[in-house]
Write a structure and sequence with these properties.
Shape: globular
Number of domains: 1
Structural class: alpha/beta
CATH topology: Arginase, Chain A
Low-confidence stretches: none
Order of helices and strands: EHEEEHEHEHEHEHEHEH
CATH architecture: 3-Layer(aba) Sandwich
Largest sheet: 8 strands, parallel
Length: about 290
């Protein structure tokens, strides 16, 4: 007999031996349109058994990787700062033990907790950001802690020249102006990613990779809180993740799946496959 503990497919390595530690942050209290991302991490675990551990895209198998799934954090839905504090603490613990965190959202604000911990350990941290939205608002309806402000709050920590944004196709005028002056913005797709990756490799810069799944076109991925037409395909995202994975990725996240918004289950299945490929990519480039 074994305990009934649900983990993502193939992620059952003991913590002591793991290279990558998966954990969920089921938080969506600042969602500005359609809620439900708090159920994303548990849905990915539950539906992952519809996948094979083997990836024909990379000719690699999760069963050969050392990934520990620590489950979901229990977060305070009524306090963004409290939730971020718990995420930061878990991320810091994983980094302190010489492992790489992979955070499952939840809404995109959860990234800030992980980046706080990563930037403290790696003062020269860069962020590679895949998203439909700029997330650069100074505040959203007066709240500075919002999924609409998460990259702006990360900029508060890192400053100019260290945030590289791709696929962005939505934001207000002020956000695009801010990006023009303060971040490295590549709108609409992944153009310029290869050059950014090569620059970061030359610098041997530590990188945090944050993937908002709404970078995908809603025809591919409708199960998200704020869908935006004009997104990328699954294969474009997969190729971009593999390219970004050539850098020194010290932490990563995958967020904004709201499973009940796609009753067909296709969005959840897509998120599971993206996560499998991301895990394999990071494991391949360990160290």
């Amino acid at each position: 007999m074994k305990p009934n503990v649900e983990t993502f497919l193939g992620c059952d390595c003991p913590y002591e031996d793991a290279e990558i530690v998966l954990f969920g942050a089921p938080f969506d209290s600042t969602t500005s349109y359609r809620p439900g991302a708090r159920f994303g991490s548990s849905a990915m675990r539950h539906e992952s058994f519809g996948l094979e551990t083997y990836s024909p895209y990379q000719d690699r198998d999760l069963s050969d990787c050392r990934v520990f799934d620590s489950g979901d954090l229990e977060l305070c839905f009524g306090s963004a700062e409290s939730a971020l504090g718990d995420i930061e603490q878990r991320t810091a613990e994983i980094l302190r033990d010489g492992k790489r965190p992979l955070l499952l959202g939840g809404e995109h604000l959860v990234t800030l907790g992980a980046v706080r911990a990563a930037s403290r350990k790696y003062p020269k941290l860069h962020i590679i950001h895949f998203d439909a939205h700029a997330d650069l608002r100074g505040d959203y309806l007066g709240a500075k802690l919002s999924h609409a402000c998460v990259i702006r709050r990360c900029h508060d920590l890192l400053g100019d020249g260290r945030i590289h944004q791709f696929c962005i196709r939505s934001g207000d005028r002020a956000e695009f102006q801010f990006a023009k002056e303060h971040t490295d913005l590549h709108p609409f797709g992944f153009g310029g990613l290869e050059e950014v990756v090569e620059q970061l490799r030359v610098l041997d810069a530590p990188v945090y990779l944050t993937v908002d799944l709404d970078c995908l076109d809603p025809s591919v991925f409708p199960g998200t809180g704020t869908p935006e037409a004009g997104g990328v395909t699954f294969m474009e995202l997969l190729n971009a993740i593999r390219l970004a994975g050539r850098t020194n990725v010290v932490g990563a996240d995958l967020n904004e799946l709201a499973p009940m918004l796609d009753p067909s289950g296709v969005s959840t299945a897509t998120a599971c496959k993206v996560l499998r490929e991301l895990l394999l990519c990071l494991s391949e480039n360990q160290g």
